[in-house]
């Protein structure tokens, strides 16, 4: 899917919230659930579809980092260029999105 | 440092962890095979995170555990979502809605439905069994010309005289006389109060052989007691009085004062014979001397059939005293055509009428279609043939369902309804088949879609004006003129070269994509 086409894509509010949360630095499933208040049965399927449409991509954490923190490795998600472009157009559609989840909030925590 | 749990709390904690993992495993089964490993790793890691955040291991709280269970239940939605996505991605173009296989499947389902209804509706079943048990050709019922219809007029003496005399126009005679008789099953006779009253036809023993009617269970009942006359039950009586017992043949019944053996069951259906008969008591001619008048059925010889130009023929017979009798021979079993004859007639009419309601060309005269391989062309014609082959039995069964399922069998209304239904289904079905064929891509046989108006109708004679449709597999474009002109009279196909392919790639993978984001629990 090309970026030009993605920017025209109209996301639902839920999908836009997930993209906004990712952009804000909440990069794995449970952190997105916590930030958005959405249940797991909504967040994970939505992320599957976003990944299928190449708006986000996933990457496994290195085992050494997880071992150092004594936990299983996480699967991290990241916005693609197409996803960023779609998020920009979604912000215009949903003006309160940035107020709900301010960009860089995760980094400031 | 974690606070240590008491032993019961630790046991509960372990049990709940096990339950959570059990829920995840349950959802894991739903995940497509290739993705299970990664899916399990992710959810396992997330569950660990959830349990950490909820403070499990530091103490037991139902509220927290309920939240964790809710999280685990969400895994089922995720698993189902992955499953749907996998299925959609795997779905080949050829099996999606609008494809040739889909169309054939739909027609096959319609055929199955109409056939199933036909097997289930009693009226249709009766009509079919009747049509399968047609009487022999060349049978006539002989009666006196001066008498009312359906009154018995021929004496047994006269029947025997005709039978004994050498005949030119007939090669067989049978006689029957209908009486009302009390009938008892012998096993019940001791406690019986007189038995049921049946319409019994005392018939000559060759009656069924002459009529050409098959007798069910005849083999079973034939050799039970050769000294007793046989009784053939009508199908309705067999069902009503004997509960459709297949072992009824061989039982002994008492008909009036005579004992008789049940020798079989006659097929259901009116055979155009007068008299309401529940059972036929087959007797040798020597025992048919007593009683009143009856009916005589005769079979025409070859020379007799050549003389039988109408359904009723006059017959002149001479009695022993050489006095002439004026008789009539009424044809039996040729009153109404069977459902198969009606179907053939109506479907032939529909095919003849087809050009009046639909053009019969497929609009494939386009030059560019020459490039299509012969296999594709064979498949296209085969598809057309398959549709027609499915439509015809649908028309047959659906018309039977409509006519005999609700109108009752062997009525004039049912015959007319069957004719009308067969004609309509064949005519409009064939029209649909041709129109459907014209709108299917010659390469993949998928219906073209997304019609787009091109040009202006008012400028038809200056520039092309019509509708453009596109094959969703990216093979062809179809141009249909809005007004046929001398230079563009019929629809034309245009084959798309491979450079168009990228426009259609992955369409099915992304189908329904963004509309699915708004999932709310």
Structural notes for this entry:
The complex is a heterodimer of chains A (109) and B (521). With 109 residues, chain A is mainly alpha-helical. Helices cover 60% and strands 9% of the residues of chain A. Chain A has a single domain, classed as Winged helix-like DNA-binding domain superfamily/Winged helix DNA-binding domain (Arc Repressor Mutant, subunit A), CATH 1.10.10.10. Chain A has helices at 3-8, 13-23, 29-36, 40-52, 63-68, 81-93, 97-100, 105-108, and strands at residues 56-60, 75-79. In chain A, helix 2 crosses helix 6 (81-93) and helix 3 (29-36) packs across helix 4 (40-52). Chain A is globular, with a radius of gyration of 14 Å. The radius of gyration of chain B is 38 Å and the shape is flat. Residues 507-521 of chain B have low confidence and may be disordered. The chains are: A mainly alpha (109), B alpha+beta (521). The interface between A and B is medium-sized, with 33 and 34 residues.
Q: Identify the overall geometry of chain B.
A: flat
CATH topology group of chain A: Arc Repressor Mutant, subunit A
Q: Strand content of the residues of chain A, in percent?
A: 5-15%
Question: How are the strands of the largest sheet of chain B arranged?
Answer: 2-3-7-4-6-5
| Residue-averaged pLDDT of chain A | 84
Greatest interface (CB-CB under 8 A), with counts per chain: A-B, 33 and 34 residues
Task: State the order of secondary-structure elements of chain B, H for helix, E for strand.
Answer: HHHHHEHEEHHEHEEEEHEEHHHEEEEHH
Which structural class do the helices and strands of chain B define? alpha+beta
Give the helix proportion of chain A (percent range).
55-70%
